[in-house]
Amino acid sequence: MQDRLTEALKAQDVEYADIRVEDTTNTWVNFRGPDLDTIGSARTVGGIVRALYKGGWGYATFNDLDDLPKRVREACETAKLVGRDTTYFAPAEPVVDVIPARLVKDFRQVPLAEKKATMEAYNRIVLGYHKSIQASSVRYADYFKTVHYANSEGTYIEEEIPDVNMIVAAIARDGDVVQTAFETGGGADGFQSVENFHEKAESAARKAVELLAAPPVAGGKYSVITNQVMTGVFTHEAFGHLSESDFVYENPRMQELMQLGKRFGGDGLNILDDGSRPGGLGTHRYDYEGTTTRKNYLIKDGILVGRLHSRETAAKMGEQITGNSRAVFFQHPPIVRMTNTYIDQGTAKFEDMVKGIELGVYAVNSIGGQTAMEMFTFSAAYGFMIRNGQIAELVRDVVLTGNVFDTLMNIDMIGNDLGWEPHGPGGCGKGGQHPLRVGLGGPHIRIQNCVVGGQQ
Ligand SMILES: [Zn+2]
Predict the structure, then answer these.
(1) Statement: residue 456 has pLDDT above 50
(2) Across the chain, what does the average pLDDT equal?
(3) Which of 29, 31, 164, 350 is 20 to 30 A from 291 (CA-CA)?
(4) Ranges of CATH 3.30.2290.10 domains, the chain
(5) CB neighbours of 311 closer than 8 A, spacing ≥ 6?
(6) Over residues 255-272, mean pLDDT
(7) Can you say whether the dihedral through the CA atoms of 82, 84, 88, 91 is positive or negative?
(8) Kindly report the CA angle at 432 between 426 and 434, in degrees rounded to 5?
(9) Positive or negative CA dihedral for 440, 445, 447, 450?
(10) Which CATH homologous superfamily contains domain 2-213?
(11) 143 - beta bridge partners?
(12) Which of 188, 169, 211 has its CA nearest to residue 393?
């Protein structure tokens, strides 16, 4: 493949060109209620050529590898039609590297029938747990992707990317009240990552049933503690997306808000994006422009010190490259994306964070949310009240709302217990590219004066 791509790139006559080819095999098994919903397997091969000329990009996608030089010429022609300006493209050292997958139990060797039987067992546990369990959803997916990347500067990278992921969800009902709870599993290291999940399947069912009896949280302003997953979702969604420099570059208001050197939080606040973190959902040795991934500080000791870049945005803004040019599928050109984004751990013990709160809310895990510029709304999977310095009763409908900048300023304790969202399906969406695998993490954090929505 290296020779093929290198040879094809000889057809380019612009300032820069690259080719990315992806060969993906995948399988899936989905149960909905007692029935098998879908099951199957597929293989997809395709790629994209990018060409850069006078600041203009030309693209050509393809499904077969015949006549690659023609695709390269097409992308170059398009680039010449749109290029009118100056090219900004930060330099990166050419590399040649091969990154093989490391699997404990290779899921490509596991028969589809075995995958089905494994998921069916989890599904049966959920449905049989309690009479108030009305429905279930068990979704399994795996893929093995080989990415070949070459550019006109001499870089060639071949990376195998395996992924196994699963979600087991339980839906409980009591009259008008419907509650859902789920557990996710999987990993980049093989099929064993979704085996022996029986207890977790049961715990999803138990949580859904428990939530039926839990009262909705009373709306108001509270001292709030978020667990690792909620901290990670908040960091990625509310802050991380504002650090993607294509967005900043195109948006004057964001440039003003996201000025480097500005204070965003207390001295203990550190927010990072690290594509090189071993085992992360957003981990790669290189991004899709051949840039080595690295640990990038966004906020250091409370001060905004950096943002995420492609080679183009780094050059345009006169900042360092960060290795954040990523794409979801071969049809997509890479754009500026997060990798593994997190608040770094501090020194506070969880008990001490709780101890200081007379009346507060502990928000656990996340079932999604929305952001609009600096405003956010996130729903926790569930929560607990904190009363007189102790974790008290289970509550549901815990929705956190606020302004990200105020909220960062209101963090008064940062836990010593950095953790990451467990492996599961889904990912980040941006510019029509979804779901991109990203890692979300952080420690427990304590936020003062946080608005919690709910019944008044
Ligand atoms: Zn996102």
Answers:
(1) no
(2) 96
(3) 164
(4) 2-213
(5) 89, 90, 91, 92, 289, 291, 321, 325
(6) 96
(7) positive
(8) 10
(9) positive
(10) PmbA/TldD superfamily (3.30.2290.10)
(11) 26, 163
(12) 211
> Using an 8 Å Cβ cutoff, are 318 and 259 in contact?
no
Cα of 157 from ligand 1 centre, angstroms: 26
Closest CA to 366 of 376, 375, 357: 376
Ligand 1 centroid to residue 437 C-alpha, Å: 10
Closest by CA to 152, choosing from 337, 16, 338, is: 16
pLDDT in tens, 178-215: 999 999 999 999 999 999 999 999 999 999 999 999 99
SS3 331: coil
Ligand 1 centre distance from Cα of residue 235 (Å): 10
| pLDDT for position 454 | 59
pTM for the complete prediction?
0.96
Q: Tell me how far the alpha carbon of residue 233 lies from the centroid of ligand 1, in angstroms.
A: 9
Structure tokens at 365: 């895990």
Which whole number is the average pLDDT over 100-121? Answer: 98
